[in-house]
């Protein structure tokens, strides 16, 4: 989960174009402009700025050394992100990607302009604009302009021009160059972009490209390969000002799917309108488009569970406590169960944190420390996120290579719940990581000995997008329910988090009598000391999954493992075997036929390994309602078996207390 968290830079990267106005060695310094034009530059060109977050709730391993940050940056209350200039007594213009109203940051919620005297004014009304043509015309609150620029439609290749902008946030800089010609916009040539050799830097975006007389022939938008690209005056002047057109091409995908979906999102906002309303309208339309597009993406994927691509997933079962995902294998388009590569970390008091990362998402299984209650370990988002941060190093880079370990994000900004397609209740939480304009999103599934956690750290503007994606991920996540007897007792008191498929579960055990009674769905187990001497540290492992019952889909417990103690050397396994689909191969069919014939190891004949000092015996258990496509196998194993007779007696005792209704 290590990540460079430094965005304390002069330009807020989240606002920049994919091709930003980066510096190039080709331009020349110096203006060559008449004094009248220079006065216009002084009074009619502005910085576009964002207000820095006032508070930082993050806890670090040491105090941040702000003295290492240049004085001008650390004392400025704003980030400088681009340039704007006045075009009438009331209006300014900038590049759309500078004041990106299609992007709703959770950190930088307002836009401002700052004049040469340091006065700051909030953006007010939008009077024109287009994200594709990359311009935005707007007013600011409590400010009019005595001096402003005028547009000029006429220019030709070879004409001298000057780029004017807030280069690198160091103030307004004028650079000269020549018009190099035009080039059609990339998608379909609907308009031309102007090319020039004038220089540019981060922060120049939104500034004017002017003639020696100070007339604006274009709006600076990007620098690529030492060529400055600008939106010509005629493109801006001829565009409709009745509405703001927003259009963006997307390519959607999802972690668990192999297919992709191309989508063009288009919407309009009526003008004039308050800029916050324009942004809200665009975002609302985008969220509807995202939901519809992602729903279509899943609809176009191989059908989940009921289609012909599900033989593998319907035959799968969990073998460990770490969560796994149902996903579409791009090689054959079949749904399968993942095998995530993971790493484990020890926690205090016999706890453990296991972690896997795939596709920008983090998956965790927490085995809670013994000293922490199951309620706190499973339902306290701050405790869970702090535990992860304090176990797996995550850093913030303040300036240069000055790094600080993050120990806590503080209290979450929001907490909620999500009930997934399997009837499980997840706790949702998110934290605004303001210094990096990101959001930490966490989904927590309470389990008997500690939760499963799915999380991601993403650009804050896309909180809704990733919450949508994570809900689908949770719908397709498989998690085992595993704990010792004491932990099961505690977990079953958290009624709210008992999933639908375990609502019928009852469990009672007696330490003095060394026995337990367990009932879940069709299975009832009553086991006493004649099987094993059961105690508080005996463990029950339940592996739920999808399977077919009587031709219908059912989600329930397919595998039950019960260990006498934490060492796991003495145990029993009850498994629902289902007739395999021929696509699974001859080996699966042969194993099924062996079950039907009750062959070894399910022939009730004990087997002993003298070398390992272990013994085992298995049987096929008859259900009360026989299904020809289902067989329940029972496997019993122990160390120091003390002869075949002892194994047989224990198996008989186990079978006598075992009932399966279907």
From TrEMBL:
One Pfam family hit: Trypsin_2
GO biological process: proteolysis
Keyword Lipoprotein annotated: yes
Keyword flag Nuclease: no
Cited InterPro entries: Peptidase_S1_PA, Peptidase_S1C
Record's signal peptide: 1-18
GO MF term (any one): serine-type endopeptidase activity
Keywords from the UniProt entry: Lipoprotein, Signal
Protein name per the record: Putative lipoprotein
